[in-house]
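Marked as duplicate of an earlier ticket. Keeping the data here for the record.
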Amino acid sequence: MVSEGTGQRERVGPAAQDAPHRAVAATVSSRRVDGLTGPYVEDWYHLHRGMHSLFVHEFVSGGGFSSAPLPAPLLSQGLAMLRSLLADLTLTNRRRIVTTIDDRLTPDLPAGVEVVPIRSGSYPATFRRLAATAQQVWIIAPETGDCLASLIALADGLGATHVGPSAEAVRLAGNKVSLCRRLTEAGLPVPRTWPSSDAEIALREVGFPLVAKPAQGAGCEGVGLVTCAAELNELIERAAKTGEAGGTAILQEYIEGTAASASILCADGYARPLSLNRQKVRVDRSFSYEGGYLPLRHPLADEAVAVACRACELIPGLTGYVGVDLILSPKGPFLIEVNPRLTTSYVGLRAATDLNLAETIVAAVEERRLPAELRIERTVRFSASGAVESVRDA
């Protein structure tokens, strides 16, 4: 899986995130990728083509909500991933790096990055312009409402190569109903899952508690633990509203155990584990993600990363960094979700290794090959907002 060193340090990685200018709360379902198929619009910003260009785009902080309130939990995680990724990419000076930022925010980004501010209403045209003038794009966005897949498809249509999966792979991974079916048919362990319309069957077969979640969503948005009949309809309805417009909710068997994630690197139909990570998730009527630590040392570690890799290899076109959520239970590891994009664990993983993680991912995508191993040099703890520290024992 991975090998571990003994190096330690006091503080590593990015500092805690800046608070956004506007403290707001919303869900990603309230914002679609509207207008991106419209005509090309000129604006003030001029881009040259003289150097190999990579457009790094984090949807939440990068203008996707420029005409709507910013969703606080997704914003802090998005900024943490954006800062970390840009910091790694700018170390080599191999390419021109461009990114976008909602003009209500003033994040401290690494030197050497061209930052394009996104004002209300300017997002669709600016995204199209930057994608059209870049050789590569690296998109971090929620799967909700087909957001991530539609952005990848748009960039692809404009001639830019995505440092990550195809749009179709994102759709296959993001649809929780079809993904559970695909994994089950392959003999992989997943919680029993039902469409919310089959709530009576779920109650008859496993009873409470159940997990209600959007059929298509990202992170903990809209996910809640249903413990009694009085909560059932309310939490199903909330989950459905959090997903895409007119979306549906699913119910899953609640699995007791250790919340974990596997950071996986995929290329050419193969997958290799980078790390197994402990996730800190508050389980309640509303789940919330609070960070984690890595590497996770657990008796089921080898089995967990094996099923995570197998799940990734079942999804055609899944390329680059992938985060697989699992529960390590007394009955073994259970696959929960496959996240076809950068996840917050990247923030901790880059601080735990001496390799340039971003360049390792780029090489896997460009050269269609996987590294022999990623050496974990230290144990790190990380928050959802990107604060990272080295620890002796997590």
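See parent ticket for discussion. The chain has three domains: 15-173, 192-253, 258-391.
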